[in-house]
Amino acid sequence: MGRTRSGVQFSPLSDDPSTEDVSFIQTEWDSTNAFGAAATQEEGFGDEGELDSHVCIAERAPTPIPNEEIYLTISGPQRTDFSHCGGGSWTGRRDSSKSSRSYTVHELEEMGFTYVPYEPGRNVLFSDSQTRIVGGLVDAPPGEEWTLTKENASVSLQNARKIGAGTGAFLNKDLNHRRGRYFTLLTGVSMGGGQKRPGNLAQRLRARCKLVQSILLNESIKRIAGFQSSAFYFLAPKLYRRYANDLGRLYNSQSELRWNFDGSIYPCVAFNCGPQSITTLHFDQGNLSHGLCAVMPLGNFDWKKGGHLVLWELKLVLEFPPGTVALLPSAAVRHCNTPIQKGEERMSITQFAAGGLFRWVAYGMKSAKELGSMKASDGRTVKEKADKGAEERWMEGLSLFSTTTSLEQDYRTDQLPPTSLV
Ligand SMILES: [Fe+2]
Q1: How far does residue 285's CA lie from ligand 1's centre (Å)?
Q2: Which of 32, 52, 231, 402 is the most buried (most CB within 10 A)?
Q3: Does residue 177 sit within a domain?
Q4: Does residue 334 contact residue 281 with C-beta atoms inside 8 Å?
Q5: What's the CATH number where 191 sits?
Q6: Model's pTM, two decimal places?
Q7: d(Cα 36, Cα 291) in Å, to the nearest integer?
Q8: Is 332:92 a contact under the CB 8 Å cutoff?
Q9: How far is 124 from 121, CA to CA, in rounded Å?
Q10: Residue 235 C-alpha to ligand 1 middle, in angstroms?
């Protein structure tokens, strides 16, 4: 695979999702109103060396979606309260409800959720009330080779957990955090929490740094990361190009920033090492407000009985087997998993992008604080142009989602998305 240091890299990816059988789940959730106030990032940052800066993007577009579309209508939509919006917000909704309660499939169905069974070879796209594709579940590539890939990746995360517990890289208190009770390793480029500029996430312990490096070098993990990125392109080519454009500019402006993977557009990854990586209901408030994060479960559990993906505002509960990829608007839609059985193991890999990175680029590679210290009118002009009104920015973000009728055309275009955010 060739490389360029000058900007966006175009590269064929080997695991393009199959588009032979696509179903649509149409909900009445109105994404027009799903918007949240700015949030803070919780992790620290630091410099850990250099790698080539480049951005990968799928060159080979998936084949057009078929004509036979299946629509399911979800009843009882929840409309989020627009009064929580903050002007100039780039990140997700701040979540004040700190509930650690889990939900069973039965409870969710009683609450009106629609159950979406997994069917091998079928990709599910879910659209909002305006037919915007706001996420989906992409099936794993067929064949024995992918089975080995997910098994190897599972072992890598299992080993990280065992070694981490043995070396002190993981402590018992690390089991308990905002998203659930499991060990997790976070690495990549992020921005938030009062950080002056984007940076590589620092591991607080050297032992953790070694664990992260060993996982990043694992070929199965690399392949999964590339597949997640391809799935993102498959579902949201315009939004993907926005990531490629903005993040390409960011990485080119700071040579110390490192990509986690050659084949992924995402700047950050969480390796959720289990033993039971089951999340409680949450927003990912630091992520780009209209972004899509990619999640793949791994491990050995009965996915008919547990580990389902719950999308609260969409009122969906989906079977979510190991090796498949879910793309979800994690900053705008609350999500969680149903519990798995005692003794079972579930790990997962989640790739995402912090909203603060895109805000930094839109502010001309500056923070809001720096803009504030500039000559008053200059700084204010840049900020107002980038922030716009809360509703206007949100609608602009939504315009980057494809609709069920535009998706085919959206693959074909060569053009980057509108540059009004940059
Ligand atoms: Fe999440």
Answers
A1: 9
A2: 231
A3: yes
A4: yes
A5: 3.60.130.30
A6: 0.83
A7: 13
A8: yes
A9: 10
A10: 19
Ligand 1 centre and the CA of 385: distance in Å? 30
Cβ burial, residue 264 (10 Å; 0-12/13-18/19+): buried
* Distance from the alpha carbon of residue 233 to the mean position of ligand 1, in angstroms: 20
DSSP alpha helix (H) spans, 236-354: 237-253
End-to-end Cα spacing for the chain: 29
Q: Is residue 397 part of a domain?
A: no
Q: Residue 242: how many CB atoms within 10 A of its CB?
A: 24
420 CA from centroid of ligand 1 (Å): 28
Query: In which domain, by residue range, is 93 found?
Result: 8-360
Residue with tokens 């694992």: 218
Q: How far is the CA of 337 from the centre of ligand 1 (A)?
A: 10
Q: Does residue 220 lie in a domain region? A: yes
295 CA → ligand 1 middle, Å = 9
As for how many domains the chain has, the answer is: 1
pLDDT, tens digit only, all 422 positions of the chain: 333 323 333 333 445 555 445 555 655 555 554 443 333 333 333 333 222 223 333 333 333 333 333 333 232 233 333 333 333 567 777 766 667 788 999 999 999 998 999 988 778 887 776 778 888 898 888 888 999 999 999 999 999 999 988 888 887 767 777 777 789 999 999 987 778 899 999 887 888 899 999 999 999 999 999 999 989 988 899 999 999 999 999 999 999 999 999 889 999 999 999 899 999 998 888 889 889 999 999 999 999 999 999 998 888 899 999 999 999 989 888 899 999 999 999 999 999 999 999 999 999 998 888 887 766 667 777 777 787 776 777 778 888 988 878 887 888 765 444 433 32
Helices (H), 4-143: 105-110
Identify whether the C-beta of residue 9 lies closer than 8 Å to the C-beta of residue 56: yes
Q: Report CA(144)–ligand 1 centroid distance (Å).
A: 30
* Cα-based distances in Å from 329 to 50, 224, 281, 352: 31, 20, 14, 10
Give distance in angstroms: CA of 381 to centre of ligand 1.
Answer: 34
Question: Does residue 407 fall inside a structural domain?
Answer: no
Which of helix, strand or coil describes residue 33? helix
Beta pairing, strands 114-116 & 316-318? parallel
Token pair, residue 340, equals 């798995």
CB 20 within 8 A of CB 68: no
Q: Are 37 and 85 in contact (CB under 8 A)?
A: yes
